Amino acid sequence: MLEEILTRCAAADEGLDAVSEDFDRLRALERNAPEALAAVETTYATLTGRVSAAEATVAGMRERYGDGAAAPVAGDVEQAKDRLAFAASALDQARPAVDANDHARAAVYIRATEGAVGQAGTLIDSVDRRSAELAEAAGKLPAALTETETDLADAGGLLEGTAAATSTADLRGRIARAEAVLTDVREAMAAGPYDPVDALRRVEEADAALDEALAGAREQEQGGRRARSLLDQAMLTARSAIGAAADYITTNRGAVGAQARTRLAEAQRRWERAGQLADGDAQGALAEAQQADALARQALGLAEQDVRGFQGPQGPGGFGGPGGSRAGAAWAGRCSAGSSSAGCSAAGAAGAAWAAASAGVRGRRRPVRGVRRRAGQFRRGRHTGAPGRWRPLLNARRTPHHSAVPDTSAVPDIQGAVP
User: Fold this and answer.
1) More confident residue, 386 or 200
2) Where is the composition biased (Basic residues) (predicted)?
3) pLDDT tens digits, one per residue of 164-221
4) Whole-Å CA distances, 77 to 121, 205, 260
5) What is the DSSP string of 378-404?
């Protein structure tokens, strides 16, 4: 029960707040009833005189622009007359109350008269405003038509210059709509009375849609021209990067892994794709060329990393290592000192055989110092220059126990041939 009372009191308070301004106005009218009555009578007389002009304005709009143009305000004059009739009735009640010094009663009728003449004034003003808007629209319509025709010409030229692969369906649709609107408006203007506000609205909407499509197409066309200007440079840099990576991978193919080769293959594919797109889609071709350049540089970096981590055949004991190249160099030095041609030939053959045998070992020979020798297999020989290593005799045989010793069974006996 108490909650219901509180709810009703709150609702009543909100209602009083909503009409508080009206109460304040009534109190003010009560204090100044004679002055307020004189002011509202003047306003009433002015609006009564404007009713006839408003009727003439509506008739002129219908004659010049048609019933459709005057339709938004066609009933405003009649409604204004009704409001003024109510105001006249309220004034007839307010005057005797003021004369009788009954200001409280007079304030109520004066307030009702103010409301009625205020609404009547709004209705009559709307007629005048509509007439001015129609005249202004009729004056702006020719310029709007000319501007739209100019945009149509620009759109037609843009269509002719657009690449065949570029989609122009949206632009063509907007062009068709603008052309249809221009045709309809011109026919309406030539046929007789028409609504210039509606015609101007239709032309402006069609032109705005056309401008939007033109802006997008122009931006796309400018982007395409910019992409074409950059495409040649991108293709050149990508081709250079692909060539450098391909040459490096080819010359180091034994050390380069699959990841670098995959990057290079993808770079080549994208570069070829860029060439295919160059004529119809310059922006797409530019993106492909840039990707090809990036992938080729990645491939080169990965290949260089693979080569740095690869242990090739030039290590200790390989061809060119201390067990092979030094022996060949020794024989070459003796030949250059004036040895016999037979000795040099035999020495060269021996050096080549020794290098070939040593290349198969690739540095896996173990130091023989401290290993118990077997008869006929090893003897202390000349030091090779590698710490802890001793060069085996040329006539040593490869045994399972010393698998790191190269098999030199094919090396000829050249001791007698060396001077």
Assistant:
1) 200
2) 362-383
3) 656 667 778 888 899 999 999 999 999 889 999 999 989 988 888 888 877 766 676 6
4) 10, 32, 87
5) -----B-SSTT-BPPPTT----STTTT
